[in-house]
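Researcher: First entry.
Model:
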Amino acid sequence: MNTASGGVHAWPYPTLFAHRGGGILAPENTLAAMKCGYAHGYGAVEFDVKLSADNIAFLLHDDTVDRTTNSQGLAAAMTMAALEKCEAGAWHSAKFAGEKIPRFSAVAHYLHGLGIMANVEIKPCPGRDAETGKLVAELCVELWRDRLVKPLLTSFSAEALYAARDAATKAAYGAPATPMGLLVEVPDESHLATLQALECVSLHCHHATLTPERVRFFHDHGFHVLTYTVNDVDRAAALLAMGVDGLFTDNLEIMARRFPAALHDGGRLMRSAQRSPASEVNWLSITLPPMP
């Protein structure tokens, strides 16, 4: 999906992503969160995936279950059976009491039913980068095998992404692997080599670190630029003016109201304030993405 400098290509994902499924409106990384994102009109959600002690992929952001469940302990030390006994909704609000930690496979099937896209962040437990990247990528290939728009697979861990790239390519029988993006805090030219080596389609970074020059630099090298976690509408407008291609938000209701067109605008060209005039674009080379 990534192209040479100056190339033009379609991008299947919408501009706005619901962070951890439901942002601040639902317990993060749960089925209820995915339902919440969908209910607010979002066409894509982001969530975190790691492995249990018995190598089952499930959704959780932290290394422990302490913050988002009624239990305590390292997630890496817990079997999936133990994780499924955790109550994962009441910490947010009483109406979500009884919500459980979901398996990745259950979330994938639920999203297919809703017809929305996914950014799957590989969030390895400490020391489990490669094995988590491998297993999550294999699951992405299998769970989205009959879907025309694949999940965008991202991670802060280059080790996890290298393992994911190799596993996804093998699982897809040599076909193009699941599209991948590199997560960083502060983007700079040093990330270019990793992006190219991994054949990434996108760079993801903290919104406070972005400048028009940085967005232009990565666009010029063929990479989409996405940014987290944007909850202020004025800041979002400024980032879009820079040419940013995607925003992750916890402020689902306000952002959807302010930018309704950004909920389902997949298929647009790479955003760029420096884009060539329309007369210079080879429109016949552009392939619109299929529905998810």
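Researcher: Second entry.
Model:
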Amino acid sequence: MKTKIILAVIAIASWFAATTTTFGQDAKANPAPREVFREQLLDQIYGGWIGMLIGGIEGLPHEWKYTNQPRETLPDFTFLDKGARTDDDNDFEWTHLWFMDKEKVLKLPYPRIVEIWKANMNQGIWVANKNARQLMDEGVVPPETGSVARNPAAWYNLSGQFCVESYGLIAPGMPQVAADIGLHYAHIAVSEEPLQATQFWTSLISQCVIYKGPLEDAMQLALGAVDPKSCMAEVVADARRLYHAHPDDWKAARQEFDKKWRLERRWNNNSTPVNGGFVCLALLYGGDDFYRTMQLAMAMGHDADCNAATAGTVVGVRVGFKRIAAMPQFKMPDLYVNKTRPQLPAESKVSEQAETLLRVAERVILANGGERVTIDGKPGYRIKLQTPQVLEWLPENPHGPLNKPK
């Protein structure tokens, strides 16, 4: 264990190696710029996006099925043999990304988001997002639609996790920008503790495009984006501790974690702490194995489809699309069917969605000091890397299970 800690410190130190320009006045020192081939970046973005689609849709049969105990065995499944489709684990983000690309803006103004939501978010919408949509009909505009005072699910809801992963994909190696964009869209429906999840997952995914070290070390780095007094910070620490305490028994780790956070701390099974911890456990026990990580995220339980979507994005961006497509479980046609968001195309290719994300990513790269370059005769980008940073802190007395809004 001591050796592992030393190696982790060395890996983390290498990430903080040099200083370049910063995001925000108080940003920490950032690593040196990194060059990446366009083709490689597309493969990783495509891998993260398709990982989200596979996890979210293939995870649906396991949603809310395993509460007090995990699934007895890991599920076997193929990867979307009929293609992908709209689901709330992907179509909130796809709607925003589609308009971000068309209107060439990274953070759609909140009045514009109200217009987009009124036209598109009228089915397949639940809990905090549904509350936000109803508030829009009453004339309330984000971020007030995500305030605890107006939205009764805003202080715990998982949309702070499952509605933001792609914002890490479009800000490769720039976790501060990823978190900033993620927070902008997360504020539509949530606030307080769920925003700590937003900062963690967007920062982790952003880093995973560039950082090739152990995933556990990447998780530690991403905690730089999280308020240390938040539940999210403690959740990640607990998942790591339990993984090392039970390296060969994921069920034991799952049960101990669930006992503390759901039964003793009383966070419900639609909350970011409970589900975020399950994703962390799935990632740790999955060991960068895409299929096994998906199996674990589904078998852990609670909001299993959302958790598999998040885990799929993290591992997908690390391994890339080509490696996923080469797996024997991959039977997926290049098809995405839209049945819920009327202003978007009824059908599109998943490969075209990945290209859309890359176009948005290019705008992010160029807007944050990066540039287009030629690398060994091939197109690529020079990205000004960033270190994770807390952009939004918890309030002094955050709401929680023992301090619910009145």
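Model: Note on the second entry: The CA atoms of residues 276 and 397 lie 22 Å apart.
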